[in-house]
Structure prediction request, 141 residues.
Amino acid sequence: MSQAVKNTWWNRLCEGSYRASTRRLVREIEAESPQVYSEMLRDLEMPLEPAFEREMARHLDSGGFRAFVPADTLMPPMLQRFGLEQASVAEHASYPSLRGNCNACPVAGHCWGAMRRDAGIDECRAFCPNAAAFERLVETA
Prediction:
């Protein structure tokens, strides 16, 4: 068997095995190294392999990793998308409600991925449960 054929076969086997085990890998890191997993979630600029990143986002969307607080990690860059500053919004009476909405968001994984790839405001408006409130805050600022 030629080296090229062997490499193609081996690469397909490795890629298939990795894809099949990515979900388990994410859960094992979460369970066995929660501090590392938490750091990976909080660092929106940490380079991650695309399939692994997608699985982390999917896991968050399905309610995974209860220790993750979306309002701490995702709300600050989301506020920036809308032209708001965390400090000024934190003083507003609606801030606790905004944090609650963010922490209860059913698409936290989607948001996490969007913040990682620096999604624009139009995309963010389409999924963020706080988008309308952020826009009202911009109008009153």
In short: The chain has a mean pLDDT of 91. The chain has one domain: 3-140.
